[in-house]
Amino acid sequence: MRLFSKVALAVSALIALSGTAKAEFPERPITVIVPWAAGGGTDAVARIFASGFEQEIGQPVNIVNRPGGNGVAGHTAIMTATPDGYTLGVASPEIAFYKALGTAKMTTADFDLFSRLAILPAGVTVIASSPYKSLGELLDAIKERPAGSLSASGSGTGGSWHVAIGGLLKASGIDANRVKWVPSQGGAPALQDVMSGGITMFTGSPVEAQGLLEAGKVRTLAMMTDTRVQPFPNVPTTKEANVDWQYANWFAFVGPNGLPKTVRDKLYAAAERAQARPEVQEMMKKRGITPVWDKPGEASAYAAQFAKGGIAVLTDLGLTRE
Q1: DSSP reduced 3-state for 96
Q2: pLDDT tens per residue, range 112-133
Q3: What is the rounded distance in angstroms from the CA atom of residue 88 to the CA atom of residue 260?
Q4: pTM (two decimals)
Q5: Cis omega (within 30 of 0) on the bond before 26?
């Protein structure tokens, strides 16, 4: 009987171990790091996406905000996470610029980019009482008035919205530095400066100015797109102003490099289904966010091309350190 009991215990242990070894990913909650503070654009995209992702992956998805260092702290936490699929993130376009700016030793290639989740096109927004009624009028004033007479803001120096105005000026045949850039901590403080008359224009997404736009306190002269976008059907595009420049912030679902193929495949499939859920699409579109999903490999190719164009503008602005 003792021998039988020992054999039975051994068999039970082997079965238990076998069950543990065959346990499928994921077995516990997943953390998604947002490198920016709660309430911002990246945070909004991440939380909307996570609401569908946890339904599809079958585990709770916890959003953890890790702001600091113009996004360096949070992006570094994603990049250096253990590649087991339990720590992922939502990255912003700054990862394309950090190395060129000398801010951090990371590039888009240091992340496993599953897909972009959303894009937010840039625009040119001025106070409602501004004398400039169109992008053409504003560009003429920039050319005619002394360099630095007009100013813009929306992000830190070398940030995405700084690239937006620099590229717009370059595409218009104007020196990229002719408009004075005033660094800010984001869209909200930049828009406050527009309202107070402290700066001429906000070059971030009109989505961030939607409340002020609806109240008639500001006016968006143009969207940096080639076609008009919702929810701003009456706002003309840069293409309509004969300026060949399009620019949008993007937010990508990413992980550290080195994820096991089986884990990565499961994450990608669940994320793709999550992004396609009607409620996820609807919540993004209601906020003026354009949802996106890339086929395998497309996000990395897009990010590499985006980095090339953005770094060229940063070089024109005299900000690169490479």
Answers
A1: helix
A2: 999 999 999 999 999 999 999 9
A3: 14
A4: 0.84
A5: yes
